[in-house]
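Researcher: I'm preparing a figure for a lab meeting and need a structural model of a single chain. I don't have an experimental structure, so a prediction will have to do for now. The sequence is pasted below. Please return the structure as tokens so I can convert it later.
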Amino acid sequence: MKLEKGIGSSFDDFLEEEGMLAQADAVAIKRVIAFQLEETMQKEHITKTEMAKRMNTSRTAINRLLDPSNTSITLATIENAVAAMGKRLEIQII
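Model: Understood. Here is the structure written out token by token.
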């Protein structure tokens, strides 16, 4: 049985129709950021407590930063976290 290309809609189309695409994209992006930050912290042997000191913030704030479902983190906070690890933030629009 051969399926015709272009029949039906994509999941993105469905989310957009339901008004949920932007939120789904935000959650996906935050999950990637949280994963990369945590992975870098592990590679560099940086604890949450040490990260909080470097960023001059609380450990609770670090927990929010690393929470993949918390999309309310600002770009400035992400930039501060990356700088605290001696890295640079790079954003691409594709």
